[in-house]
Specification:
alpha+beta
Length: 128
């Protein structure tokens, strides 16, 4: 059974968003990392890049496949998790804490409210 924390918001593309002061952390869900298998590389944008909602902003490469990362909200990148450069497998072992991918500033706060709740995302996972 995969972990789906109640305190986060989720995209239908298997990414999570967490409020962190006046910014947000973004990562992929436990369900997504489980489906991908062992993660070996993460490609991310540069600090300062602006990405529109649903736009590809990077990729996650696993031993099985390469998957695009799609922006769950419109944002500006304020930090990247540089620890993933040397240890991308952190996403497999701790997707919701140490395995965060980006810290961002939301362009449109209302987009966060439009994301899936824990319950809605659980239903999506159960149907997969």
């Amino acid at each position: 059974m995969v972990s789906i924390p109640e305190t986060l918001k989720y995209s239908s593309d298997d990414e999570w968003v967490k409020k962190d002061g006046d910014t947000y952390l973004i990562g992929i869900t436990d369900f997504a990392q489980d489906q991908l298998g062992d993660i070996v590389f993460v490609e991310v944008p540069e600090v300062g890049d602006k990405i529109d909602k649903d736009e590809s902003y990077g990729s996650v490469e696993s031993v099985k496949t390469v998957s695009d990362l799609l922006a769950p909200i419109s944002f500006e990148v304020v930090a990247v998790n540089e620890a993933l450069d040397d240890a991308p497998e952190t996403i497999n072992s701790d997707p919701y804490e140490a395995g965060w991918i980006l810290k961002v500033k939301a362009v449109e706060e209302s987009e966060v409210e439009d994301l899936l709740t824990h319950e809605d995302y659980q239903k999506r996972v159960d149907e997969a």
